[in-house]
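Feature request disguised as a bug report, sorry. It would help if multi-protein outputs had a clear separator. Right now it looks like this:
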Amino acid sequence: MTGGQAAGGAHSARPAAAKKRAAEGTLVGLALGDALGFPTEFLAVQRILDSYGPWRELKPRVTQGVSYITDDTQMTLAFARGIRTAMTDDELTPARLAQAVREEYVTWYRSPDNNRAPGNTCLTACGLLMTDRTWQDASQIGSKGCGANMRVAPIGLVPGLSDDQRSGAAQLQAALTHGHPTGLAASDLTARAVYLLAQGADPAGLVGQLRVYASENRSRYREDWLGDLWTCSQDPDPVHFIRRGWDECLAVLDRLDTARRTADPEADPCLYTGDGWIAEEALATGLLAFLLFPDEPLTALRRAACTRGDSDSIAALTGAFAGAHLGAGAWPGEWADPIEHGEELRALGAYWDA
């Protein structure tokens, strides 16, 4: 089937999330993980240990009073700003979101601060989004890089959305640059995890809830949000297209379910669920680091940052999950206060928490 309302209906009130300031905790946590993983990305674990000491003692690097973030947080902010623009009268539609987020991604692309090792897919797609072609034409249909979901957390924090809106918006923002169906499904799942944790879901049952959600949505191509994107692929029909993405995500969720129960917390999480360069592995490895230490947010961030893979993206997602679960109080001032763009991150969080 295509389109349709996802199971669960709309959720208009979010008292649990607001009480613990989950939106603020998520956005600040994402930026903290990004900053912590910034210097360790591309390094082998032993090189990280040799350069920075024991992984349980890692701290964000502060330069002239600032903990600098990467393109992960920059694009998260771009998406968040696009959501705010698209919802000026509290209504979220595909056309308005696509236009607003497209403009924000192009602004990011042109920014002189876009010098934090951005991914090639984002750069290529955003360059094409500057032209008059449709966004579907600009989308990189063969890419499922983690740029698809490293930035998706804000849509899991917006109150009053239906499950269909949240899912469609998560997939659309990914598709503007990363058109591979696995990038779409992994972004949807990442936003779903943030939403569930912000609502008070028990981390112990989170993987099971995500597997059910993936199975329920496996044959749902969101034509109202994605348009004819699927025709840019070699798939015979839209359902075949989207199933490929959900099936890859279900496979990595199976690995995650085993790893969360059997993984050695002292070992690199990438050994169990992948290095995080691609979207489904970034989701799984970011979740694994969080689930190993669900009530120890700084330990979770440190574990995520001391990895052989895409350390900043993995740690950014871990920080988003931990912040959604524990709220703004998870992050001590000596970590949170110096974070680059901290004022805007906290203001956006406060807006959605309210």
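(second protein starts here, but nothing in the output says so)
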Amino acid sequence: MCNLYRMTKNADEVAKWFEAINDAVGANFGEELYPGYPGLVVAEGRVRQMNWGFPVVLKGKKGQPLKPKPVTNARDDKLTTAFWRDSFARRRCLIPVTQWAEPEGTPGKMTRTWYALAGHDLFAVAGLWRRTAEWGNAYTMVMADACAQMVDVHDRMPVILPREQWTGWLEGSEDEALALARTCDLELAVERTEALWASGAMPAQRPLI
């Protein structure tokens, strides 16, 4: 799963890379993206700013609604279930990513290990989006089984889409899109760091739906 990623390009660079119209002029987002914060996506031929994570409203012990929580990842084998079905059928998107991070090491002392598509400083991850009452437009990443390079760190990873698969993901049938939601077999670049996973405002990871 992914609850932290980097995207170091501006909206104009993203628009050029994806041959899309830039609707995110003046977008405000950090180079490191956290759940519930804004990031860029490519949807309907346009670069757009949206919040990362579909909101889920939980209830407290007395049944009172709590502050919504962002669900940032969608499992490939759950895309046709009730929570994701409409977005998967109608609103697929591409998420520009430079690197994503996973926690590695001893619990309580886990550090950040960064992954990227080898030889690329930007690549596309499969995503879904929808309009929400809580946060406006929101997006989520699609996850598949981890590849051999990272399976010892986490059992899931983002679905990386090579350029030739972009149109199939965005415009193909549900069956065609499901066939693309699979483990990446391309080489990854791995960067292990000493930075602690839990630091500052880092939100806790949430289970995939």
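Even a blank line would do. Unrelated, but nice: The domain at 5-57+67-196 is CATH 3.90.1680.10 (hypothetical protein yedk fold).
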